[in-house]
Amino acid sequence: MIHKNVLEGMYVKEGDHLYQIADFANLWVIVDVFEYEIGWIKIGQEVEIAVNSYPGEIFRGRVAFIDPFLNEKTRTVKVRINVDNNDLRLKPGMYVKAEIKSHFRDIGRPIDRNLHGEYICSMNHDGMQEDE
Question: Quick one: which of 73, 72, 64 has its CA closest to 31?
């Protein structure tokens, strides 16, 4: 985000913020995960992300933060996914479909199971302070 706080002819004082600049090379995707799926989510898990702007293309990210609070109305937990965006094709505010890759053990043998819920969420820039 680039935000200019002054215009030509305005007076500024020492300490005034003239510009606010954010780096969009790293974005956050915030998804709502249903209560019954929370146990399947772990920090560091791989996430595949699809956006309507680039049909058939998959972007990759990793779970970086799991909110400790459950939204009692929606029965969901916010999960933050960090996504590299060096080519700047992903834009803050885009809606995405996210597939979180999970691995389970069932009676001693590994099972691959993906959370296929189409998590519709908006993207945020990585300029915020981290909650970790």
Answer: 64
Contacts of 101 (CB under 8 A, 6+ apart): 45, 46, 47, 48, 112, 114
Q: Choose between 112 and 3: higher pLDDT.
A: 3
pLDDT at 115: 53
**Angle at the Cα of 13 (from 8 to 17), degrees rounded to 5?**
75
Closest by Cα among 27, 11, 3, 36 to 98: 27
pTM score = 0.67
* pLDDT of amino acid 22: 73
Structure tokens at 123: 């993207």
Q: What angle do CA 96, 104, 70 make, to 5 degrees?
A: 55
d(CA 78, CA 32) in angstroms, rounded, equals 5
